[in-house]
C-alpha cells in the first residue's frame, strides 16, 4: 500500500489568508521553506489490488489531485463534515468523467447526513451517460467497527474533536487520525499494534479541538507506533523547528509526502 499526503495543513492552510501585503500570515513558519506551505488535510491510498481511495475532499482538492498526478479512484472516505474536509466535493465530477461511474463514499451516518445537507445534489442517482455534476453513492458506517472498502479490511473508530466528533481509520498496520484532541479507550484499542500513524497536531501549545505536541508524545507512549507523522499543522509548526526538536519516532508531514507500507489485509469475504 502507498500513501500520499495530499495536504497537511489546518483549516486555514499555511500561509493563512491575510498579512500586511496580502501575501499571507505565516506565523512561526519560514516562508522560504517549501515544506511550510500546506494545503488542507487529505490523504490518498493506492492499494495493492490496483484500487485507489481518497480520504476527504477539502477545498484544495483540484490542486492536490493535479499536483500529484491523480486522475482516477472509485472509493472515498470522509472523516467528518467540516468545510476543510468536504468543501471540494464538487471537484470529484472530473473523476466521475474519467472512471465513467459514481464514486462510493463511506462515512458515519451523522457525517453523511451533514454532507447531504450541503451537497444534496451529489447524492442524487446518476442519469447516464454524462456527468454534469459530481455523483457519489453513500455507504453508511457505524461509529466503530470493521468494514470492507476496495476489497480490504478497514477499521473505523470515533475520535473527540472538541465539541464534535471525527472518525479515525485503520488499514493493516497503518492508521490516520486527523482532527482529534482526545482518544477513548475504544479508539486506543483500535490503534493497538499500529506501526505507522498519521495524526493531527495543530500546534505546540494546548488547543480545545486539536491535539498538540505534548499530547502526541503522551499517545506515543501508550500506542508505541514505530513511526508517527504529524499532519493538520497550523502556522505554529515550523518545519526547521520540528526537524530540530521533535522527539525520536515523530516527524512532520509535507504536502506530497509519499509512504510505502506493507501490504494490507484483503477482506476474504470479498475475494
Automatic annotation (TrEMBL):
Stretches assigned to the Metallo-beta-lactamase domain: 52-233
Coiled-coil zones: none
Cited PANTHER family: HYDROLASE C777.06C-RELATED (PTHR42663:SF6), HYDROLASE C777.06C-RELATED-RELATED (PTHR42663)
Pfam family name, one: Lactamase_B_2
Annotated protein name in UniProt: MBL fold metallo-hydrolase
Organism listed in the record: Acetobacter thailandicus
